[in-house]
Amino acid sequence: MKRVLLVLVAAACLGATSPQNEFSEAARDIDTTIANGYAYLDKLPDERLPQSEVLSKERDAVHDTRSLLAYAEKRIASLADHHAMTGSSFSDSWAVVPTYADLWIVKEGDRYVVDAVREASPAEAAGISTGDTIIAVDRKPIDRAISEFWGELGLSTTPARVEYAARVLVAGRRDRPRRITIRDLSGEDRELVLHSMYDQKLEAGSPINVCSNEEYTVVRFNNRLGDFATISAFDQAMRALSNESTLILDLRDTPSGGNTTVARGILGWFVTQPRGYQIHNRPVEERQTGISRQWIEQVLPRAGMYRSELPIVLVGRWTGSMGEGIAIGFAAMGAEVRGTMMAGLNGSVDDLRVGDTDLFVKLPTERLMTLSGLPRELFVPDGPIDVDQVPGSC
């Protein structure tokens, strides 16, 4: 945080605000930034930033870079929103979900059920299956672990907070293995030690993989929807595609999102004129001016690049953010979107600076919707995947 340190030295020399007060002011700015810019206040209890005596005391005690970041992480966690995070972190911060998660947990009655298991992950290698139940984390009953998670923030549990905490706890701390107790479908309990997803060796590789048989061609996107190289790789694959082959686009490994340029580069292959693919709504403008702002983002055709047959699009719990945007864009064109529910991440994220520091918080500042007005996070695929359509391993 070079900027804030220089400011603080100058202020001290001039007898101005003390360094501790500067950091305390930055902590208060976090609250103001969220209250002003966060697009989903209506999803929070009482439709406002959660408050507690614990959070207030921690905010007031901020006095340096480390305590500022610690408060920022807790304040962001209070939103129970997997699409909100800090731009910096500690080595032992909680894992980012869904990018560094391998289990998707939902609450069904009094059970914490594994809704999805990530491919080629520690959880899959350990034999955890969809439908298994999480019994304990680090040998604490899951209900107790969730209650303590929110108790550390001085907040009560709500349905949204319960599922958020369950997914974060099962993803674990970044710097250590996870100890998880599951009850499988046969009723047997197993205690498992799983490596952190941060230990996974992620190689750059190709932005996409392509595989095919006589009937289908699958283009699998490799979590690089923010990389412009993905556009050129996709263009190359499309130029080589046979007109007789049914195209399948596999977005099931895109948890980290991306940018709309890459999305429009992909979608642009399938239009001959400008077409809308998602609706944006920016609540901050209405809060500041009383005037609402909403618009439709369009896909434009790309010169010399067109395929008339729409693809089949595959999605799942690790289809996140921009992957979800591509899916609803194809759905708006009439393409078949198949799979499970997606990550359901809220809106479009901006990096917002905290006070006069180098710390950023990443917040959903725009709501995103389908062309029919359905919130993107509530989009439901057309049905399950027909595994016979997916040739080989992409």
Question: What key attributes describe this structure?
Answer:
394 residues; alpha+beta; five-stranded antiparallel sheet; five-stranded mixed sheet; 16 strands; 30% helix; 22% strand; globular; disordered N terminus
Would you write up a description of this structure?
The protein is of the alpha+beta class. It has eleven helices and 16 strands. It has helices spanning about 1-15, 20-35, 55-60, 65-75, 120-125, 140-150, 160-170, 230-240, 260-265, 285-290, 320-335, and strands spanning about 85, 105-110, 110-115, 135, 140, 180-185, 190-195, 210, 215-220, 245-250, 275-280, 295-300, 310-315, 335-340, 350-355, 360-370. The strands form four sheets. Strands 1, 11, 12, 15 and 16 form a five-stranded antiparallel sheet that branches. Strands 8-9-10-13-14 form a five-stranded mixed sheet, with helices on one face. The protein has a four-stranded antiparallel sheet with strand order 5-4-6-7. Helix 2 runs parallel beside helix 4 (about 65-75) and helix 9 (about 260-265) packs parallel to helix 11 (about 320-335). It starts with a helix and ends in a 25-residue tail after the last strand. The model is unreliable at about 1-15 (pLDDT under 50).
